[in-house]
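A quick aside before the break. I want you to see a complete sequence-to-structure record at least once, exactly as it would be stored in a machine-readable document. Don't worry about memorizing anything.
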Amino acid sequence: MSTIPDAAELAAGPGPPPGGGAVARNTAIFSGATGLSRIAGLAREIVAASYFGTTAAASAFTIAYLVPNLIANLFANAVLSAAFVPVFTDLLQRERKEEALRLARTLFWVMLLALGAITLVFILAAGVIMPLITGFNHSTNTLTVGLSRVLFPVVLLLGLNGLLLGILQSYDRFTIQAISPAVWNLVTIVLLVVLHTRFHGENKIYALAIGILAATVVQFLVALAALRRMHFDLRFSFDWRDRRVKQVFALMLPIMIGLGIVNLDQLINSLFGTLVSAEAPRAIDNAFRLYMLPQGLFSVAVATVLFPALSRMASRRDAASMRRALGVGMRQINLLLIPSATFMLVLTTPIVRLVYERGHFTPHSTHLASIALFWFAFSLPFGGVNLLLTRTFFAVQRPWIPTRLAAINIVVDVIVSVGLYKPLGIAGLVIGTVAANAVMTVLQLVRLRDGFDGRLEGAQTTMVTARIALASALLAAASWVVWYLLDHLLGRALPAQIVSVGGAAAAGLWLYSRAVLAMRVPEAHQVNRLIRAQLGRT
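That is the input. The structure line, written in C-alpha cells, reads:
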C-alpha cells in the first residue's frame, strides 16, 4: 500500500496525532527502511575502503565532503527538523492549509536563491578556504580543493531536499525519507565502480565525489516526485507579507547556530586528525560510519517519528503527553543503543576487520579505525538521547536553549581534543566527542526537567536504564565468548569472520532480549508485542 496521500487526503489535512501504537509502528517502519539505507551506506563505505583505504587521498575526500556537508546540514536540518515543521504543522492543525502551502512555496524559492548563491561563492573560494583549515601538504591540499568544488553543489540540493522531506514528515509520511538514502547509496556505488577506472593515481577518488553529487540529484528528484504524487506544486511564490515566513526565519537563526555547532564535532575530529597523521581523518570517518549505523537505525528513527507528534502536542499545550512521549522515546533509545554500544566495545577490531579489511584497507588501517570505533561506542547512547532532547526543544519552538547548550558542547570538545590529541592521537580526538556528548545530555535533561516543573519520568527512566545496562553486560559477555570460540575454530577467512561475528551478535541479542523481557522492561515488551503482531499478519 502506498504511503503517499492522494489529493483528497491532502485536502482533508492531517488526521489526529498518532498514539503510542501508531508511533511504534511508524518507528518500526522507519527503522526497517532506514536499516536498508544504512546497509547500502555500509556497502558504499566497504567499496570505497577497498579502493582507497586510509590513504592521504581518502583523507582529502573526507575533508572535502565534510565541509559542504556541514553547511548543507545547517540548512537542511534547520528547515526540516526545527524551524519549518512546527510552523507548518501548526497551520495544518488549525486547518489553514492554503497558508501552509504558500509558506512552503515561498521558503522553497528563498532557499533556491540563497543556497545557490552560497554554493557559487564556496566553489569560487575553495582554493582559499580549504588550505586554511587543513594540515595537509601541497599536493593533498590541491586534491582537497578540486574535490570540494565537485561536492559543494550538494549544499543547494540537500537544503531543498530537506524542505521537501519536511513537508512529507508533517503528514507523517516517512517512507520516502527512509528509503531515499538507500537509493542515494546505490547510485553512488554504481558510479564509483564504473568511474574509478576512468581516473589515474590519486585522482581515482574523483569517482567517489562525482558519484555522490549525481546520487544527491537523484535523491532530490525522488522527494520531488513524492510531493507531485500529493498534487503539491512548487510554483513560484514570494509572499514576504506572510508573518509565518518571518517566524520560520526567526527560528532558523538559533537553530542554524546550534546545529552548526553540533555538526562541527565530526569536522573537528577530522581537522585535528590531519595534525595526527594523513591517515587519521579517513580512519576516524570509517569508524564514524559504523557508529552511525545503530544511530540511524534506532535513535534517528525514534526522534524523526516522534518530532511531528511532539510538535502537535506542543501546539495543543499538552505537557503531560509530551512528558510521556519524551520518556518513552528516551527509554526506547536506551533499549536499542546501550546494547549496540557494548557489542561495539567488546568486538571493535573484529567488526572493523570484517567490514573494511580488504584491498587497500590494510591491517594497519583496521588498527587505526578500531581505536576510533572503541571510543565512539561510549558516545552512542548519549548521541541518541541528545537527538531526541534537541528535537523536543525545537518542537516547543525554544531553539535558543539547545543552541546555548551546543556552544558549551563544542567548547568541551575542543578543550578535550586539544589536550589529548598529542598524547593519545586518534583516541584523544574521539574522547573529546564522548565528553562533549555526555555534557550535552546532562545539560539538556536538566533544562527540560525545569521546563516541565521537575517532572520528566526520570525515576522510571533511570530504573529501566539500569536494567538495560545489566542485560547489556550479559550481551557483551556472551558475544565475546561466542566470537572467541568461533574465531579460534574457523579462522579469519571472510566467510569465517561473517559466521564468528554474526554468531556472536545472534547469541548476544538472544540473551539480551530474554533478559530485558524477564526484567520486565516495558519498552521491550512493547517491541515484542509489535513483532508478534507483525508475524501474526504474515
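Two observations worth writing down. The chain is about 85% helix and 0% strand. The chain has a mean pLDDT of 81. We'll return to this after the break.
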